[in-house]
Amino acid sequence: MTLDASTVVDRFRRVGALLEGHFRLTSGLHSAGYLQSALVLQHPREAEACGAALADRLRDFGARTVLSPALGGIVIGQEVGRALGIRAIFAERVDGALMLRRGFSLEPGEPVVVIEDVVTTGGSTRETIEVARAAGARVVGAGAIIDRGGGVQQIDVPFHALAKVTLPTYEPASCPLCLAGQPVVKPGSRA
Ligand SMILES: [Zn+2]
């Protein structure tokens, strides 16, 4: 099964996962739009379809393990791992820093793909890549369901997203929504 970009975005729209308003993203930037991927991924068949499509784009990298940042990356990471027939582990924040816990480990030179749900600035994907490298693994690629178009060029491994959704982001000091006096909302999960 193949999923083209417009089908992916349609799925987000259909379940109300493409929100409009005034949001403070995890990166600190403000935006008029927010993608709540958990509303898509709560449906196992949707999650499985996204995971399979992403796995198709990443299969040639020959990864042996999927690594995702908690919480947002766990469900899609699991589905990519299922489609590739490899294990899926996650890194989580302790005092603000991402790390491997729960007995998860990576071997020296182990080929890893890093998977997230939505990439905005690419910051947490880059941080997750560093977790893998610090453990001695070799990061062979990265992927996400949606690329919000704000900074994936700073990811230094091959990167694939199922869809690109360009939603403008603003520095808080120059945010037109703030200037208009519209209250800002922090969504309930990582952007
Ligand atoms: Zn604002």
State the strand order across the main sheet: 5-4-3-6-7-8
Calculate the terminal CA-CA distance, rounded to whole Å: 27 Å
The percent of residues in helical segments reads: 25-40%
Question: What order do the helices and strands follow?
Answer: HEEHHEHEEEHEEEH
Instruction: Figure out the total of helices.
Output: 6
Biggest β-sheet description: 6 strands, mixed
| Overall pLDDT level | 92
Assign an overall shape.
Answer: globular
Structural class, from secondary structure content? alpha/beta
- Cofactors and ligands present? zinc ion
Low-confidence stretches: none
Radius of gyration: 16 Å
Number of strands: 9
Percent strand: 25-35%
Describe this structure in words.
- 44% of the residues are buried.
- The protein is 29% helix and 30% strand.
- The chain has a six-stranded mixed beta sheet. The protein has a three-stranded antiparallel beta sheet with strand order 1-2-9.
- By secondary structure, it is of the alpha/beta class.
- The chain starts with a helix and ends in a 12-residue tail after the last helix.
- It has six helices and nine strands.
Short description:
Helix content is 29%, strand content 30%.
